[in-house]
Amino acid sequence: MPPPPPAWVQALKPAGPQGSELLEQERAQSNVNVDKLSELLHTKEALETQDRLVRILSSEPIFDKSENHTSGRTERIQRALARGKRLQQLREQLHWSEQEYIMANDLIGEPTPYGLHASMFLVTLREQSTPEQKKLFLEPAEKYQIIGCYAQTELGHGSNVRGLETRATWNPDDKTFTIHSPTLTASKWWIGSLGRNANHAVVMAQLYVGGKNYGPHPFVVQIRDLQTHQPLENIYVGDIGPKFGYNTMDNGFLLFNHVKIPHVNMLARFSRIDKDTNKYMRPASPSLVYGTMTWVRSNIVLDAGGVLARGVTIATRYCAVRRQFQDRDATGNVGENQVLNYKMVQIRLLPLLASMYALHFTGRGMMRLYEENQSRMKASAASDQDTRGPGPEQLRAGADLLADLHATSCGLKALASTTAGEGLEVCRRACGGHGYSSFSGIGPWYADYLPTLTWEGDNYMLTQQVARYLLKSARAVLEGKGTANDTSQILQAYLARREKGASFDILEKDSDIVAAFAWRTAHLTFEALKLRDVEKRSWNSLLVDFWRLSTAHSQYLVVKNFYEAVTSEQMSAALDAETRTLMYKLFRLYALHTMEREGAEFFASSAVTTRQLRLTQNNAVMKLLDEIRPHAVRLVDAWKIPDWKLDSSLGRYDGEVYPDLFRRASMNPVNDLVFDPYPWNDAVLKNGPKSKL
Amino acid sequence: MPPPPPAWVQALKPAGPQGSELLEQERAQSNVNVDKLSELLHTKEALETQDRLVRILSSEPIFDKSENHTSGRTERIQRALARGKRLQQLREQLHWSEQEYIMANDLIGEPTPYGLHASMFLVTLREQSTPEQKKLFLEPAEKYQIIGCYAQTELGHGSNVRGLETRATWNPDDKTFTIHSPTLTASKWWIGSLGRNANHAVVMAQLYVGGKNYGPHPFVVQIRDLQTHQPLENIYVGDIGPKFGYNTMDNGFLLFNHVKIPHVNMLARFSRIDKDTNKYMRPASPSLVYGTMTWVRSNIVLDAGGVLARGVTIATRYCAVRRQFQDRDATGNVGENQVLNYKMVQIRLLPLLASMYALHFTGRGMMRLYEENQSRMKASAASDQDTRGPGPEQLRAGADLLADLHATSCGLKALASTTAGEGLEVCRRACGGHGYSSFSGIGPWYADYLPTLTWEGDNYMLTQQVARYLLKSARAVLEGKGTANDTSQILQAYLARREKGASFDILEKDSDIVAAFAWRTAHLTFEALKLRDVEKRSWNSLLVDFWRLSTAHSQYLVVKNFYEAVTSEQMSAALDAETRTLMYKLFRLYALHTMEREGAEFFASSAVTTRQLRLTQNNAVMKLLDEIRPHAVRLVDAWKIPDWKLDSSLGRYDGEVYPDLFRRASMNPVNDLVFDPYPWNDAVLKNGPKSKL
């Protein structure tokens, strides 16, 4: 580490006012009840757990973050493995719950090579194993005696799961499966925890029985020796190399050369091969698997609020500390203006501040719906084993809710992760030049988050699922077969009023804002339906319309969920009137700013008039920015992201931005190098060896 | 390096059709004359130089790119210095011109620590030195006997140059200046080549003479010893640490503790201290300095086309090789569809393909204007020394053109770099999961490019300069003082027709498309003028309107420049009719797609009707996508970016995407590590030492 700065440097202070003073002023000018609001967002228990875990983790040297951005990949991934090990040890010693373990992982701020073992490998074994298989695979996996991963994506196929090339062929003679990669593109690819860490994999492979393909199924395959950790014979496995982010994870590749596995290694809860007849037995309940995907996507929606909150917290605090230029209309020497006072900064940051709340409440709403549905399904499965069984109406309502939930989760996953990912980059740029420093804390986080826009369904691909569902719902409504679910309702409401036309008072009535979003969705749905069913346009030619439709629908869902949250009894009970008013304003800002950005669609669907749009843009949104501005710092404080997690000079709670940037810069290891700057000297360092020029 | 894969792996091929076959088909289905088009873009000479330089550079081991993405920062920056040295040696040995040296730097694909010496340090010395100072500083600098940088930005001040805190105080007694950093925020920051490499700096500091501040001026300060390369006394200097990209550059910080420099170290071509009277002598011609900024920004516009072309080349080729899903309306087994055939991919990539051409021709147009203006100014300066001097009309026309050029370059710099930066990320995502791999070649390039959106004027800040100029022009036009320049013309044309209203045939007449963009600019200008001058709205409350206005104006300029290029005699002479037709289509796609995205503004300004907008969206743009699609690969081929420069598995000219991804993955150094995967073993590697958990 470089020597500390000389005394005359250590005596220097930033030009005043100090960051700490500015943030104190910010906090003094708002009455937002930070503690109550944070408890509403996270619960008091979770916040206490967070404090406790930060104390534990920040006192362990292995979790020190100061070298995260300077090391090469081989060092980083070894340190990540060491961190993963330490987390496991702590988990056992301190008897952490699953929730605590997840939170601890989240706090250390980067993935570890155990990531996919702890999530998809265990989840798949839990959900798709028979009791015998649980004993064989799940129990040792839970004890980390075997380490696994979930190998679905291939070099040549990501989105199109049916196109996977890896094969599992049933051998009736010796009652085994042969796992084989017939081509190079069949190589498993991107598989987290596979590259260096796993010794087992759940492999999705096309099942062939008697020459017939039954589609992709899951198989447990051991890939490395449990002692030497060397790949087993006829298996070629490794890490796929450096990435834009996520470099502490060993995403891997995997090829099989006719590898035999026993019958018991096909995960058989839902489908299996009968050993005696050599016949394929059908899936029992694919809707449960469907449910897992919905759960994964709902979690992405819920997380998106918190992901964005990191960027918004950093940018908001820094823009309150950073001062640049005098206000152009100011007279006399009033000093430089806080950057957060500029409307061009507010219009970028404050709608994102509103979005992080909007996404959080939407994610909560999604999880609630998911859980309702799960308990309904369990009840139905239980009554299934009754003599009576569920009535046909119950079954229909269940399937209806599931389909709605599936489409909703697809659309919202796309919208939420795009909003969070792109929002982080907006936050980074709002920090000006210093946003580009790794010490801003935004760039590394953005780079690690970006895959979320592609995995669990590419955000563009997913929009087709939403459109397909909306078109199907619209056809049902037109045939008089509408249901009680929300989608059906908004389509019916639109049809009933279409002739008369919409007239929403979006500037005065909040419920009319929600109605205007619903109207636009319904309008776009019937427009798309006409193009597809009447004009017989090709599916491909409509993909752009479908993407717009899905975005519109998902924006409606966010606006609706946010509105329900701000008008809920829970919020009334939890917050004082002033804080609640601010929540209303954030709702309006999210909705009206979205409406303004998508103005052409709102206007074309007659959901709003051009006059309303102009007033929205010139008055309503600008006024909301003015009203929310004084509370911005407290509104990010309420998210209660610990400094240790943010790992950001710009976003420090105490506002001591410049001393922290300076401290980190002076300590960075490049400052240990003494260059030889002359081109004719081949050595790059003073007294260093000659380089191999 | 890991051992090569076993024989059974080496025998595997990707599932057919092979990437090479698909790209051959692509190239066979289009008649675009790639060679003629590339010569029009770059000139034949430049393409030959490029070929020659690639041969030279790719044969030197120091320029091997394979470890660029895996090494830590201290290794990377040392290698970058070694590369910089080798480039200098080659430049001397092979007698490269300035152009050849710049191209070679560009081909190696990452900045070196000599970057700011070779650009801003030398440029500033050339432009702002007296003959005596040239001998003293410029001559040794050109021979790399002294290495320098340009130190303007500070920790606390970037955009607001007048707010710089570093001071240079004139000492009349001993005829020296004292350079001093009174605060921590006065520390120079972000200065390229300063952190480890420079031994001199041009320091921008507030000049104080007799207690009076004369504003920021440039001073040459030696900062490190020429032999030991250690910082001189009372100077604290170092590297600012890791960044989102640009990590091979030693951006630095610099603090002074009352450092004395002689009189001759103030660069004195335009302003100086008279040694005898101790008086400040006024700047001679600030407009020349103004000119340098305009030149730098014009270059950013010109480069933006090529920056974007890298991403579009990679994504277009890969989307032609990648196949996923069958077309939903296809009957029977037709195999999977090339991703490039999907409209949702086309709508993302093809407008960017059009943009890269649009920006290139716009940059060319800017440089032409700049050069015209420079020669006019030189002529005027020459006649200045005549007895006659320039006439008042000449002077006014010159100042008028300069102001227009300045505003134009500000707005276009913002639009062009935002388009290129954000476009690269669109390209990366269009590549699906593999876009996230460093081997895609997009991510690292994007990360290195991003500072361009902030430096040389933050893209949001710059829009105020454009708006200020447009408002001033509009006031002049209203007062009957319009000039002959284009801005004045479009404002006058709008006023003349405003009562009658616009009626542009944007779907049939290309010149009307340009006119509609001009109309929108003029409309927004007069709207903004009304808000500012009549309604007396505050400057701050109008910043968002100004940003929209600047964007609109800059889009008009791009559309106009592109239109002038496609209708130019130069293009008629260079290209066959078919290729030229494609250029027209790219122009239309750029313009109509922009119009569609900004639909609300075009409609609100009455530049187009809602019917026209709908037809643009549903028919015109979709039809253009269909028509351009078959030529997409040839249109990126014409940019002639060598594979060695692209450094991308996905973007290879030969389409051998998957074997190359596989080869790079299997060779990556993480595959040399053998993990110990068990959490209770403290060692992270098999037989490795215990980690310090």
UniProtKB/TrEMBL annotation, chains A, B:
Domain Acyl-coenzyme A oxidase N-terminal: residue ranges: 33-147
GO biological process per UniProt: fatty acid beta-oxidation using acyl-CoA oxidase; lipid homeostasis
Cofactor(s) required, per the database record: FAD
Residues annotated as domain Acyl-CoA oxidase C-terminal: 511-673
Pathway, per record: Lipid metabolism; peroxisomal fatty acid beta-oxidation
Catalytic activity: a 2,3-saturated acyl-CoA + O2 = a (2E)-enoyl-CoA + H2O2
SUPFAM superfamilies: Acyl-CoA dehydrogenase C-terminal domain-like (SSF47203), Acyl-CoA dehydrogenase NM domain-like (SSF56645)
Example GO molecular function: FAD binding
Entries under InterPro entries matching the protein: ACOX_C_alpha1, Acyl-CoA_ox_N, Acyl-CoA_Oxase/DH_mid-dom_sf, Acyl-CoA_oxidase, Acyl-CoA_oxidase_C, AcylCo_DH-like_C, AcylCoA_DH/ox_N_sf, AcylCoA_DH/oxidase_NM_dom_sf
Keyword set, alphabetical order: FAD, Fatty acid metabolism, Flavoprotein, Lipid metabolism, Oxidoreductase, Peroxisome
One GO term describing the cellular component: peroxisome
Protein name, entry field: Acyl-coenzyme A oxidase
Organism: Aspergillus terreus
Taxonomy of the source species: Eukaryota, Fungi, Dikarya, Ascomycota, Pezizomycotina
